[in-house]
Amino acid sequence: MGIINRLLLLVYALCVSVSVLFLAGVFLHLIPEGMWQNELRYAVARPESLAVLAVVFLLGIHLMVAALSSGGKKDRREASGELVLSESGQGQVKVAVTAIRELSERSALAVTGVRDAKAKVEKQKEGSPISIALQLVLIQGASAPEVSGQAAQAVRGELAAALKLPDVPVNVLVSDISNAPVEQKRVV
Amino acid sequence: MENNNKEKVLPTKKETRLGSIRIADEVVSIIAGLAATELDGIAGMSAGLVGGIAEILGRKNFAKGVKVEVGEKEAAVDLYIIVKYGVRIPDVALAAQENVKQAIETMTGLSVVEVNVHVQGVGFPEEEEKEEEVRVR
C-alpha cells in the first residue's frame, strides 16, 4: 500500500474510531440524551453532512479496492514460483524463486561496501534461464563501480556454485548511498 | 484394493490365507521425510501453513514437506526441502532422490517412479544458531 493510501487509511480509521466512541457514549448514557439528539438534528438539517458522508463512503470503497488489488504494476519479466533446475528419470529438481533471491542478496551483502541489497529474479528468453536485477545501497566512501562489480561477481559465483547455473547476467543499480553506521557484533 | 482410509494392500504370498498387509499413505510420507532429513545438505523440510501451525501446537510432523501418490505397486513423491547454505543444490537434490527411492522401495516394496524435489528456501547459519539458543536455557 502506498503512502497516500496509508494516510487515507489513517483518516478513515480516525473517523470510524470517533464515530464508535460517540455511539459508545450514547449507549452507555455518558452523553445526555438531549445533547446527542440536538446534535443529530443539527447534522441532519445541514446539506454539508451529506457531502461528508459521501466522502467517507467513497474513501471506504477506495481503500477496499486498494486492499484487494495486486499492489501496483508487476514487472512481467519478474519470475515467480519455481525454476526447473534439472529433469531426469528420477524426477524433477525445482528451486523456489525466493530461494534464488535470498542467495543473491546474501552474497551481495557479504561484499565490503554494500549496506543493503535487494534482488529480483527475472525470466530470460535466451541463454541463461534467469537474470538478476540487483539494487544496492552503498556505504559512504565506497567506490560504486568497484563495489557493484564485486557484488555482481559474488552473485554470479554464488549461483554458479549453488545452482550450477553459470554466467547468470546480473544487472546492478546503485540506488542510494548511506552513511548510517553498520551494526557489528562486538562479542561472540 | 483400497479402503476409505487410503491404505494400500501389498501383494504378498500370505495375503489370502493369513490376512492382508496394508500400508497407509502417511507411512510412505514419513519414510520419505526421514530419508530426506538424514542427508547432510538438507536443513529441514518446508512445512506450509497447516504443518507450521501443527508444529507450533507441539505436534511432531514427520511427514512434513512430503506429498506422496501411492498406487497398487508404484509411488510418486514430491519433497519440499530447505537446503543448507553453501551446498550444491543439484547434488543434494540428486542424493535426496536416490535416498528416498531406496528407503521406500526397501521398506514397502513399492516401485518409486519419480521423486520430485522442490527447494523452497536456504537455511543460513545464524538462523540455525538463533533456533538453538531458544532451546537451551
Give a nutshell description of this structure.
With 188 residues, chain A is α+β, with helices and mostly antiparallel strands.
Going by CATH, the homologous superfamily of chain B would be Cation efflux protein, cytoplasmic domain
CATH class of the largest domain in chain A: Alpha Beta
> How many individual domains of chain B?
1
Main sheet summary of chain B: 4 strands, mixed
Structural class of chain A: alpha+beta
Please report the distance between the alpha carbons of the first and last residues of chain B: 52 Å
Q: Strand order within the widest sheet of chain A?
A: 3-4-5
The fold-level CATH name of the largest domain in chain A is: Alpha-Beta Plaits
**Shape, per Cα inertia axes of chain A:** elongated
Overall body shape of chain B: elongated
| CATH hierarchy: architecture of the largest domain in chain A | 2-Layer Sandwich
Radius of gyration of chain B: 17 Å
**Number of helical stretches of at least 4 residues of chain B:** 5
Q: What is the percentage of strand-forming residues of chain A? A: 15-25%
Number of domains of chain A: 2
- Uncertain runs of chain B are 1-6, 8-14
The CATH H-level homologous superfamily of the largest domain in chain A: Cation efflux protein, cytoplasmic domain
Average pLDDT for all residues of chain A: 86
**Overall CATH architecture of chain B:** 2-Layer Sandwich
Count of strand segments of chain B: 6
Reported for the largest beta sheet of chain A, the result is: 3 strands, mixed
